[in-house]
Amino acid sequence: MKRFYFFFTLFFTSVINAQISDFDATDFTIADNIAKLNEGEKLNNPPILSHKLTNKLSTDVEKFRAIFYWVCDNIKADDAQNTKIINNRRKFKNDSLAYVKWNRQYQKKALKELFINKKTTCTGYAYLIKELCFFANIECKIINGYGRTADGNVESLDLINHSWNAVKLGNKWYLCDAAWASGYLDSKSNFIKEYIDGYFLADPNLFAKNHIPIEKKWFLFDDTTQVKINMPPLVYGETFKLNINPITPSKMVVNCKEGDVLIFSYKNLDNKKHIPSLIEIIREKEIPYNIYNIQYNNELTTFKYKFNKKGNFDVHLKVENYIVATYIVKVEDN
């Protein structure tokens, strides 16, 4: 599948670590139903829409849930806009003033496309979330940075290309990404609606594997140095769908010698026991690895694999038939 990039604008504030597990006792059924009942509502009056989504809900987290779910359910990603913006980001990569000038001129067209046709890029998603939150008296920010996908920012951070949100609930900040939660673009650039709940109030440590903010405080955890120096394994929408957080190896590029045994581990953030596998894809055919010593310890799953052959290997971690992480393993002579 083809994941998408987006343009951005800048906002800043302070942070405290938090995630959706803070709201394990909260039932979002009513909030989700309100969002569904308002499906198809126009965007010509955001204050009224925000009121319709939130006025019957008593807590800020439920109100935010209704807003988030509605945006994910009603807004489509626009590949044409995205391509234009990414091309200009690359064109003006070394001339930020020229890009700002171009972007300022383009924003009017982008906002018109959002409010009339409900088609946008990631910044449009983040902007709409922020606007609807404003009218519900919920503090919300647009966060900008590097989105890591199979198409970019994989082994190094090359292009600032993505925007998402931070929302303040109580006295804590939480992270979410409505653009990637709403669906994806297929190989023909058609938008496929597929809601992924894992991007709602996401686990900060998992979120950081494919969301690298410009300002490090928006990681929402303290030890952020290694994220930018050593790129973590590449993760996917399916990773968030299953709430799987790959732990080891901690880097995407792993160097070892012939005969070395690598330990792979991941956390099941929903505490479910999944059966893991390790594969390589050669000419569109999956080649399974003979992993061993699979162990389950509460939310942590570990297993081992011995690399006996020299070479560079694209190794994929699979859980429940979904690829959830990708590593590049470079095996040298012993």
Automatic annotation (TrEMBL):
Gene3D superfamilies: 3.10.620.30. InterPro entries: CAP/Cytokinesis_protein, Papain-like_cys_pep_sf, Transglutaminase-like. Residues 114-180 form the Transglutaminase-like domain. Residues 1-18 form the signal peptide. It comes from the Bacteria. GO terms for cellular component: cytoplasm. Pfam families: Transglut_core. Keywords: Signal. PANTHER family: CYTOKINESIS PROTEIN 3. This is Transglutaminase-like domain-containing protein. It comes from Flavobacterium enshiense DK69.
